[in-house]
Design goal:
The chain is mainly beta. It has one domain: ph1033 like fold (Roll), CATH 3.10.590. It has 3 helices and 10 strands. A hairpin with a 2-residue loop joins strand 8 and strand 9. It is globular, with a radius of gyration of 15 Å. The N terminus is likely disordered.
Length: 167
């Protein structure tokens, strides 16, 4: 796993796999939000890491599914990163410094799409209840655009001891 940042992002099938408790919100908004701590994964070079560009492929892990089943991780994708044609009012362009913007900082991230609250979802026939706590992460102010890429699918990855998605 790049940058040793814990289980919120891992590598699967050669792509970054971002774990989220806000899967539906990401899909609907075509955005992924992160904290400043994770920004280097997108903007810097490092061991096994290159900056994101337009078309970079990523995966999303639907975190509540594993929390409910304890047997499988539900991974969806790939998604492709896209450049914004325009930014929300008061947004600050973050990356890259020149050219089309891939990452911005939202001036008022508490407007959403990630908010606090209790949620109930039916995920592949499994009734799941969970809490979303966006405020704990400053509402994920750093955002990049994602949209479903060709070949998008849902993949169930069996959880095992020393699981690569749990490191």
């Amino acid at each position: 796993m790049p940058w040793n940042l814990g289980p919120s992002v891992n590598t699967l099938d050669g792509m970054d796999c971002w774990r989220t408790w806000f899967f539906e919100e990401c899909e609907e908004a075509k955005l992924f939000g992160m904290t400043k701590r994770h920004l280097p994964l997108i903007t810097k070079y490092g061991y096994g890491v290159v900056p994101y560009t337009v078309g970079t492929k990523v995966l999303l892990e639907d975190a509540p599914y594993f929390n409910a089943t304890k047997t499988h991780h539900r991974v969806c994708g790939p998604y492709e990163v896209y450049a914004f044609s325009e930014l929300p009012d008061d947004a600050k362009p973050i990356f890259p410094k020149e050219g089309p913007i891939l990452v911005y900082e939202d001036a008022r991230p508490d407007r959403g799409p990630w908010l606090d609250g209790s949620k109930k979802r039916n995920i592949d026939g499994i009734e799941v209840r969970f809490r979303q706590m966006a405020s704990r992460f400053d509402y994920f102010p750093f955002r990049f655009g994602i949209r479903r890429a060709k070949g998008w699918k849902i993949k169930l990855v069996k959880h095992i001891d020393d699981c690569r998605l749990c490191k």
